[in-house]
Amino acid sequence: MTSFKEAIFDSPENNPPYSRHSLSDSIDKHELDDGGDSVEYPNEDEVGSLRRVPDAVPWGAYLIAIVELAERFSFYGTNVVFTNFIQRPLPRGSHTGAGGLHGQAGALGKGQRASTGLTTFYQFWCYVTPLLGAYIADTHWGRYKTICVAVGIAFLGHVLLVISGIPAIIDEGNSMAPFIIALIVMGLGTGLFKANISPLVAEQYQQRKPYIARTARGERVIVDPTVTLTRIYMYFYLFINLGALTGKISMTYSEKFVGFYLSFTLPSVVFLLCPIVLIVGRNRYIQSPPTGSVLAQAFRLWRYAARGKWNVNPMKTYRNFTAEGFWENAKPSQQTLETKPEWMTFDDQWVHEVRQGLKACTVFCWYPIYWLTYNQLNNNLVSQAAEMSTHGFPNDVLSNLDPITLVILIPLFDILFYPALRRFGVNFSALKKITAGFMTGACAMTWAAVVQHYIYKTSPCGTHAADCEPPNVSPLNVWIQSGAYVLIAISEIFASITGLEYAFAKAPKNMRSLVMSAFFFMSAISSALGEAFVSLSGDPLLVWNYGVMGVLAFTVGCIFWWSIRDLDRQECTEIFANIASEKRDGN
């Protein structure tokens, strides 16, 4: 009979590409000292009593994170100056768009509503195209090749963007056409990239079963792959924000003091780091080959499970579809030789994986409202800063408080906050974190609404503060915006990072890009919803804009928790029950 150790550790599905000894040695040496080749798995009592710690992050994951850092530098380094490029007119006497120390950079002069509309469209496009990237990767090319093609497409878009920022093109009023084409091309490359880079980084860690190790102090702990996955995505997000931070700060000053041609060219140069790292590290990456499209088969499975559960009463249909036993009649083990369809070539486990993937997608359906609050960071909050006293700072430099906060807080959450919760037995599950993300996002919008209210009270232009030119702006110091950016950053740790982790953890192996793209697609829906609020994105309605966003985030956060509280309880129970049952079955 196969032992528990052989069944779990020697299974090809769960065995990482390193030896048992290197598995124990892969733990951070300052933290753990396993002390040998033997692998010990937790029993039921240990599952409930021992502290859980993360494993070490593989080097392949760091290489992929560097690619993401360069891509995010280029994305945010250009995106951060779009608002001024579109909204503000070319400063008097300037050919490059630079505004100088006491002026505002600008080029096209199309106004705040046009700026909000175009940047919202760009966000929408960037998060629709991941669906295409997921299909191509899962069906034809695999994640690595799709990422390489995406990098090539995005670079072409960068070239067009640089052309739109050339001083002669701006002077002649011909920047709009190459700029819009650049947005479309870059958005396509970004979408193909985003659908696959997040699953690829998590796939570098192959261990899927928890085991016991000892710390240097002799404490027995459980090395938990779930906690490790959280760590991987925390630091992946840290790299994202290091790229965003350096790109935003350097490009806002480039725009203000040199011109848009420089703030579009430098990110394009940094972007060239992506193909270099991809090629140099190609033999170090763990790559999942394409397995063909399973979307049609998953839909066929769902349709088979739904047989006999439709009803003219919509509420009864809903109860049937959400009942615990919805998938039971679709499991291969429940079929006979006569009733089993020819297309049912999978096992019960795959049915369970599809069920989990669909559950994750239903959780993501709430995200568009969350992203509405986050998207204020890319346009309206930048415009708000220009209505206050900036004391020589570029108005769009304040948006860097978001990545700065993330760079500071992500290690603190990983090293102090989350471990402290685990030590005290607090189960701050993924779904609880997402709920907390909604609430902190609502707080950020409340802060922005209060600031806007006082801008209208103190601005010489009253409720048309955007019409005031420097130095005739509100005397309020621009740094009072800080609270909104810090709260948005905290909400990202709770909602955005956890969403990436949840998408990867719940997706079937051959649908990971697809489920990840479904997560990103929620941001596209949010951008489409954002277009409906463009009418509020201008004076004198901006207090209403932020207030509505805050109320929506709080209300939906409450409804979200009410709707998934049973799922949260079930998932928390399953985590420990699965470990215990594996130990019991193995023995």
TrEMBL record:
Compositional bias annotation for Basic and acidic residues: 22-33
Membrane topology of this protein: Multi-pass membrane protein
Pfam families xref list: PTR2 (PF00854)
Regions of compositional bias (Acidic residues) in chain numbering: 34-47
Any single Gene Ontology cellular-component annotation: plasma membrane
A GO MF term: dipeptide transmembrane transporter activity
UniProt keyword terms in alphabetical order: Membrane, Transmembrane, Transmembrane helix, Transport
Main location: membrane
Compartment(s) where it occurs, according to its Swiss-Prot or TrEMBL record: Membrane
Region (Disordered): 1-47
UniProt key word Transmembrane helix: yes
Transmembrane segments: 147-170, 176-201, 221-240, 260-280, 357-374, 403-421, 433-456, 476-502, 514-536, 542-562
Highest taxon in the source lineage: Eukaryota
PROSITE patterns documented for this protein: PTR2_2
Family note: Belongs to the major facilitator superfamily. Proton-dependent oligopeptide transporter (POT/PTR) (TC 2.A.17) family.
Name of protein: Uncharacterized protein
